[in-house]
Design goal:
The chain is mainly alpha-helical and 168 residues long. Helix content is 65%, strand content 4%. The protein has helices at 8-21, 23-36, 38-47, 52-66, 72-78, 80-87, 95-104, 107-114, 132-144, 157-166, and strands at residues 148-150, 153-155. Strands 1-2 form a two-stranded antiparallel sheet. Helix 1 crosses helix 3 (38-47), helix 2 runs antiparallel to helix 3 and helix 6 (80-87) packs parallel to helix 8 (107-114). 21% of the residues are buried.
C-alpha cells in the first residue's frame, strides 16, 4: 500500500481491478489491509465483489508465499486455486515439491494426490442441482454406501455412488 491514505471505496476498486489481471497483487493488498485495518478487511473485500472465503484465501496465499521468495510469474502460472490447495500442506521444507506438483497437475489431480489417492484418468464431471431436501437425501444415501463427511462436502462420494448404481 502506498503512504497515501485511501478510502474503503478506493481500496475496494483497486482490489477489484487486480482480481482479473493479477490475483497476487490483490492478495497482497488484502493481506496488508487485514494486517493494518482488520476491522475493515471484510467490508473492503465485499465492496470489491469478493466473498469472505475468497478474501481470506487470497490474504493467506500472500502471507504464505511472500516469505518463500517464489517468483511471482511462477505463482501466477500455478493460479490461486492450486496455491490455496497446496497452502494447506505448505512448509519451507516441502514448498518446492508442492509447487512442482501444482504445476504438473490439474486441481482435481492435485487434490487427489495430496490425499494419497491416484486420480481417475480421463475423469468426467457430473454437476447436480438439487433442492435442499433432495441434497440431504442424496448425501444420506452416499454416506450409507461409504462416502465420508469432510468439511462441507463428502470424500469417496464417487465410489459410494457407483455402489448404489451397481446394487442389484
Amino acid at each position: 500500500m502506498s503512504g497515501k491514505t485511501m478510502s474503503h471505496e478506493e481500496k475496494a476498486e483497486i482490489i477489484a481491478n487486480y482480481i482479473g489481471i493479477n490475483f497476487l497483487a490483490a492478495a497482497k493488498e488484502l493481506r496488508e489491509l487485514q494486517d493494518i485495518k482488520p476491522d475493515v478487511f471484510l467490508k473492503v473485500a465485499e465492496m470489491a465483489g469478493l466473498g469472505k472465503r475468497t478474501a481470506y484465501a487470497l490474504a493467506r496465499i500472500a502471507r504464505q508465499f511472500d516469505v518463500l521468495g517464489v517468483p511471482e510469474e511462477r505463482l501466477r502460472a500455478i493460479g490461486w486455486a492450486k496455491l490455496q490447495i497446496i497452502g494447506r500442506y505448505l512448509t519451507e521444507e516441502n514448498a518446492g515439491v508442492l509447487l512442482e506438483l501444482a504445476e504438473k497437475n490439474t486441481v482435481y489431480e492435485l487434490e487427489s494426490r495430496l490425499r494419497g489417492e491416484i486420480p481417475v484418468e480421463d475423469a468426467r464431471v457430473i454437476m447436480l442441482y438439487l433442492a435442499p431436501d433432495q441434497y440431504e437425501r442424496f448425501k444420506a444415501k452416499l454416506i450409507a454406501h461409504g462416502a465420508v463427511p469432510s468439511g462441507n462436502g463428502l470424500l469417496r462420494k464417487e465410489k459410494a455412488l457407483m455402489a448404489i448404481i451397481d446394487r442389484k
